[in-house]
Write a structure and sequence with these properties.
2 domains, 13 strands, 39% helix, 10 helices, Rossmann fold, 6-stranded mixed beta sheet, 340 residues, 20% strand, alpha/beta, 3-stranded antiparallel beta sheet
């Protein structure tokens, strides 16, 4: 990957077309002055050593040198260097429920948007930790493999929508099982699965999956989003989802199921409402997990490339000095710049 560390200096390249314009105006003025002196063919015979092409070549070389100096100031870099860093932190897999019921608006602006905001704030609180994203409804898949790249985590988070999974429903067990397989093989590192859901588990097996995670040393936290009293589910077209009888579907947070899964997974159940309490409680719980050394591959270090531009600029400058404006009598038979 090629980039410039100080791209602001690239604006200096606008000087080049300005210099070309000035050079053109000077050339036109000089040409008019020569016409006033006499016949063009006669003047050419009187000045046999004068070259029309050489000054243009020298000017072009100087412009190239100027452009290369500007590029040097902008610090061209290439991201071909890979470094391995040792970090001391935890590994966290976020399993986010994206079933249609997460569109409910009993939590502002909606259950899903509130969950996304919570995850984004969680990522901002991370420093040396790793994070992965799993999305689930009636099925589950890895949205982002576990990584230390928080920028990518936020980018993938923004693209999450219920339309990503065609199979609707809520299969918490599948989400937990997939999350367990998504951790690294690093030893002595605190691991947590954070399931964010409204608790409408249609498939069952969540408690058993959480117990299996506990056996592997993984804590399962459940963040229940929504109101236990229930809320209608927007369709996106101004109405609400209805059942076969034409009745409005009400989606309620199943706190009891969430608490059972969290207890089985040696984690904590946290209710997510319109306050920031859930965020603070989650941060406190994660801070208690054992931190261990994790290895991260970092691509953000770039090799400086300005040396190549500098060498080329020096070579062109030497060439510009060697090219004389007038024809060299010793090389008059070599017509490099003569038009055919």
């Amino acid at each position: 990957m090629f980039r410039f560390e100080n791209p602001i200096y690239l604006w200096l390249l606008l000087i080049i077309p300005i210099l070309v314009l000035i050079r053109f105006l000077v050339w036109r003025r000089r040409k008019r002055q020569f016409r006033l002196l006499g016949d063009a063919e006669l003047l050419k015979l009187l000045m046999p050593d004068v070259s029309r092409v050489r000054p243009m070549v020298k000017f072009g070389l100087l412009l190239a040198v100027l452009a290369l100096l500007v590029l040097m100031l902008a610090r061209p870099q290439m991201g071909s260097k890979i470094s391995h860093e040792k970090r001391n932190g935890i590994e966290t897999i976020i399993a986010l429920d994206i079933s249609n019921s997460m569109r409910a608006e009993d939590v502002v602006p909606s259950r899903l948007d509130k969950s996304k905001l919570l995850v984004e704030n969680l990522v901002d609180n991370f420093t040396n930790d790793k994070i992965g994203l799993v999305v689930f409804a009636g099925d589950a898949f890895v949205q982002l493999p576990i990584t230390s790249d928080y920028v990518s985590a936020k980018m993938f988070l923004q693209n999450i929508d219920p339309s990503l999974i065609a199979t609707q429903g809520t299969d918490i067990a599948r989400a937990i099982n997939l999350s367990m397989k998504s951790f690294t093989q690093q030893d002595k590192v605190g691991r947590a699965i954070i399931v964010i859901t409204d608790g409408e588990d249609h498939e069952g097996g969540g408690v058993e999956a959480a117990k299996e995670a506990k056996k592997k040393g993984i804590n399962v936290f459940i963040l229940g989003v929504g109101d236990p009293k229930g809320s209608p589910i927007p369709t996106g077209s101004g109405g609400y989802m209805k059942d076969r009888d034409g009745q409005t579907v009400m989606s309620a947070l199943n706190e009891q199921m969430c608490q059972e899964v969290a207890k089985a997974g040696s984690g904590t159940y946290i209710h997510v409402d319109n306050t920031s309490d859930a965020q603070e409680k989650l941060n406190d719980q994660l801070a208690k997990l054992q931190k261990g050394d994790t290895s991260s591959v970092v691509y953000s270090e770039y090799n400086e490339q300005f040396q190549a531009f500098g060498i080329l600029a020096v070579l062109l400058l030497i060439l510009e000095v060697l090219v004389l404006e007038s024809k060299n009598p010793l090389l008059k038979n070599i017509k490099l710049f003569k038009k055919k």
